[in-house]
Structures are given as structure tokens and as C-alpha cells.
Design a protein that fits this description.
about 325 residues, alpha/beta, TIM Barrel, 8-stranded parallel barrel
Length: about 325
């Protein structure tokens, strides 16, 4: 299993840290789009590394157009000599319409077309094909030599898609190169919903599982003491409650018999009662969604729970030291 780790959004620190992470043997560096741009840290890391994959996990697709992202991804893939992975996600409707002021409708169908449009643009650049993409949501039919990149030796970057529901998961298997499994998942949900949806997508695309990568983002509650672990458990519970308040994610709760929590969490979220939301998750509930243990046991827990399901995993916890990260990598490599 490949192991990826986050890089900070502080551009003054990225280069040095990226070199250290690559030297330590990790497979990839990822940057998320939360309170900073996800592309700039990776552009900086591309200049400081030569082996690791550079991944957006994730960039919000619907906050942009396919043409806009095609240029960004092309430039990053060139800077990284073919090591860039464009990890995309849809976000949810309120963020797209109210934060980004962009259109929202039928997210799975829109995402399928978004990635198809990306590929059509790249084909125009890398294979000199006429750009003539006309879909329901996106239309791209103009590309002249003046606007065509010349540095095309690395071709198109890989595209991973983040998904929770079965429709978006199926889209990933149809048109993307990999799936980024949302942190809000359970082993039961993966086996009963995620993997059957992938199989449906593979059947449509004519591909097999070995032509596709699955990346996990497990939630980890750990620490250097019982007090730190308890603090992290509380933080993870609040994160879970935030995810679970989304109506579209109810099926994940239902996979472990907790579907009744969704409406309660949604109601509390509208009242801004974030602390109370986290309190609805007991320690017993937490075990369905997260790895909870001392740092020295995290690797064994990850392997036992997910070892045969994924090709790569992203590891992150505020309480893990650099030594912990390296120890987890070493142990996971041995267990693989």
C-alpha cells in the first residue's frame, strides 16, 4: 500500500518539508482545498522533489470550469514531470452556490461530463484533435494554436475522483483513474455500496480493478497520552457529526445501523450546535468510522481494517510526530 501524507499550505515551508518527506520514502504529498488554494503548495513541492506523487485531495471541481482546470493541471503535471494527480470532488450544494457562486445540478452527471470535458481538452492539446465538446453542462469548441500549450511531453495527468454515494462512485470507475474514498465511510459501507458501484462503473468503461487506484483517507484519533487520545476522539467525533449532518450521507450511517442520527444531526447543525452534535457519537460508534489507538498500533489497525481494499492511504493526525509517520510507513510497508 502506498502511503501519502499532507503538506502545509505555508508556501515558505513547503519546499524543505517536501524534500524531507520524499527522502523518508512516502509515495505522495497531498494538499486539500479548505482555507487555502490546493495547487500552489504542490507547484512549490514540484520544484523540490523528483519521485513522489503530488495530489490535490481534493480540489473543488464545480468551483471552476473544465478549461480552467485543464490549464492548471497541465502546468502542474509538467512542473512535476508527470507526477501530478488531479484529485477532484464535488463539494455540496450550499458551498457551490453560496460560497463559490457557481451552478449546481445533478452532481454525478455533471461530474461525469466535467471529466469528459477535461479529457477532450487534453486530447486537443496532446493529440492535435479538434476540440468539439458539446454536453449538457459544458461546451468547449474553440482552441487555437495561440492558446495551446507547447510543453506536452508528459501528457495528461491522472484524475482521481472523491465520492461517497453510489452514483458518484460509479462515475469515478467510468471516467476517472482512481477513487478517493471520503473519510466518512465504514467497512460495511465500502463492501456493500462502494465496491458494487465501482464494479458497475468498470463494466461501463470496459476496465478492470487493476487499471484503477483506490485511495483511503481514514480518520485517525491518536496521541502521545490517554489525554491526547481523548482530545482527538472528541475532535474526530465533531468532524464525523459535521459529515453525518449532510442528508446525502445518511446511507453511510445506515450501513452500521445509525441512520436515526442523521435527522438529529441535521437539525442541530441548523442551530449551530456543533459541540452537541459530536456528543451524539459514542466511543462505540466511533470505532465504525475511525482508527483509535496509540501511534505504535495505528499501522496494524489500518492494515487489519483496510489492507486488502485500497492501493494507497493518506495518513494525517495533529498528534502524530514525524517519527510516528515514518514508523507507520515502515510497518505498513512490512505488512503489505
Amino acid at each position: 500500500m502506498k502511503v501519502d501524507v499532507p503538506i502545509p499550505h505555508d508556501l515558505k515551508k513547503v519546499g524543505q518539508l517536501a524534500r524531507r518527506i520524499e527522502k523518508g520514502g512516502f509515495a505522495g504529498l497531498f494538499a486539500a482545498e479548505t482555507n487555502h488554494d490546493p495547487f500552489l503548495p504542490l507547484a512549490t513541492a514540484a520544484q523540490s522533489t523528483s519521485r513522489v506523487d503530488l495530489i490535490t485531495s481534493i480540489a473543488v471541481a464545480f468551483a471552476r470550469t473544465p478549461m480552467n482546470l485543464a490549464y492548471i493541471a497541465h502546468d502542474l503535471n509538467y512542473a512535476a514531470s508527470g507526477r501530478f494527480i488531479l484529485g477532484l470532488g464535488s463539494q455540496i450544494q450550499p458551498h457551490i452556490t453560496k460560497r463559490f457562486s457557481m451552478p449546481w445540478s445533478r452532481p454525478a452527471a455533471r461530474m461525469r461530463e466535467f471529466i469528459q470535458a477535461l479529457r477532450a481538452i487534453w486530447c486537443a492539446w496532446y493529440e492535435q484533435k479538434r476540440l468539439e465538446f458539446r454536453g449538457e453542462f459544458y461546451r468547449h469548441s474553440l482552441m487555437t494554436p495561440f492558446f495551446t500549450p507547447e510543453n506536452v511531453e508528459y501528457g495528461a495527468p491522472r484524475v482521481f475522483l472523491a465520492a461517497v454515494g453510489p452514483l458518484m462512485t460509479q462515475v469515478a470507475a467510468e471516467v476517472a483513474d482512481g477513487l478517493i474514498v471520503h473519510p466518512f465511510t465504514t467497512l460495511e459501507y465500502l463492501r456493500t455500496v462502494t465496491f458494487p458501484a465501482l464494479e458497475r462503473g468498470f463494466e461501463i468503461s470496459g476496465r478492470s480493478r487493476d487499471q484503477f487506484e483506490i485511495s483511503l483517507q481514514p480518520l485517525i484519533a491518536t496521541g502521545q497520552s490517554d489525554r491526547e487520545i481523548d482530545s482527538e476522539k472528541l475532535a474526530v467525533k465533531q468532524q464525523l457529526a459535521f459529515y453525518a449532518s449532510t442528508p446525502a450521507y445518511k446511507q453511510v450511517l445506515e450501513s452500521v445501523g445509525l441512520g436515526n442520527l442523521q435527522e438529529q444531526l441535521n437539525t442541530l447543525s441548523k442551530q449551530g450546535k456543533w459541540v452537541e452534535m459530536g456528543e451524539l457519537f459514542s466511543d462505540e460508534y466511533l470505532k465504525h468510522f475511525a482508527v483509535v489507538d496509540e501511534p505504535k498500533h495505528v499501522a496494524n489497525q489500518l492494515h487489519t481494517k483496510f489492507g486488502d481494499l485500497a492501493d494507497r492511504t493518506s495518513i494525517y493526525s495533529k498528534k502524530l510526530t514525524p517519527q510516528d509517520y515514518y514508523a507507520i510507513l515502515k510497518k505498513l510497508t512490512k505488512l503489505a
